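Hi team,

As requested, here is the filled-out complex form for the FE2/S2 (inorganic) cluster run. I kept the field names the same as last time so the parser does not choke. Let me know if anything looks off before we queue the next batch.

— J.
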Amino acid sequence: MSVPPRQVPAEVLQLGSAGAYLSLRLRAPELAAFQPGQFAAVAVGGRHTGMVLRRCFSLYAGDPGDGTVEVVFAVHGKGTAWLAELRPGDQVDVVGPLGRPFPLPARPGAAVLVGGGYGSAPLFSLADVLHAAGGEAHLVVGAASADKLFFGEEAWQRCASVTVTTDDGSAGVRGLVTDPLPELIARTGATVLYACGPMAMLAACTAVAREQGITAYTAVEEAMACGVGVCMTCVLPVVGDDGVTRMTRSCTAGPVFAGETVRWADVGTVPTGTWGAGGH
Ligand SMILES: Cc1cc2nc3c(=O)[nH]c(=O)nc-3n(C[C@H](O)[C@H](O)[C@H](O)COP(=O)(O)OP(=O)(O)OC[C@H]3O[C@@H](n4cnc5c(N)ncnc54)[C@H](O)[C@@H]3O)c2cc1C
Ligand code: FES
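And here is what came back:
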């Protein structure tokens, strides 16, 4: 059952490095029972900052027993640079868990989980949930180079198989994260693919899943200004059950979408015929 989102002051317990990324562990019992694919919106800059927008991060790990959650982030701009300076004992204002999680398959079986860069963060808790439901998770992680991969040694304990790819061949198999998918899907008999990473990767994963005749669920990281459904910053064109395209908020209707419903080639535009944009 999903936990309702809350705004809470969270104590920083640990800030550590995770390859090219930083991992931030917080005491936030209200978020600890999140579902895989959900995210948190973190206020940055302190009390008197001009940075009014929260920054969103996938929830990587949670422990309802000790009331902690962890996110993994790359320093990108001013907000994440501020987060990178936090120290144990500091407090951050966090809203979560937000968004809709990855749907679980109706029957346990094999699933392929695909993560690009820090996009693999939400896939480890998903692997645990699939495993607990009697299924098995086959993880494929990819990045431009070895330092941009995000996965730990424990991936081999949590997943039935782990495949690593890098664009430059500095770790694992040289090539794109989508390259091993057709063979892996055929070998494992997977009926569902879960993916989180850059938009182009999600579009490619959806195409592979379609070719292989399986379902793809994709967690998008569209820019989000509010994270709670108010500002419409995060909309992308999604086709509904009625065949109509609507500009859909990825913070509330997503971040997880059935890959086939997203008009990947039109993301960033309002395609002709979209509901409310003419043609209706
Ligand atoms: C659901 C989700 C999950 C994510 N998970 C992770 C993760 O696990 N790890 C990670 O490293 N990153 C993750 N990201 C990306 C992360 O949110 C950004 O890297 C972060 O916001 C950068 O903040 P910054 O201040 O460092 O960068 P800056 O570029 O200085 O600022 C980014 C800010 O600008 C806002 N913004 C961007 N575009 C627009 C726009 N068009 N209109 C209005 N506001 C805009 C954003 O909302 C954000 O607040 C995720 C994003 C989303 C949406
Ligand atoms: S981020 Fe504001 S509506 Fe989605």
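Two things worth flagging: The mean pLDDT is 94. Residues 166 and 174 are 5 Å apart (CA to CA).

Thanks,
J.
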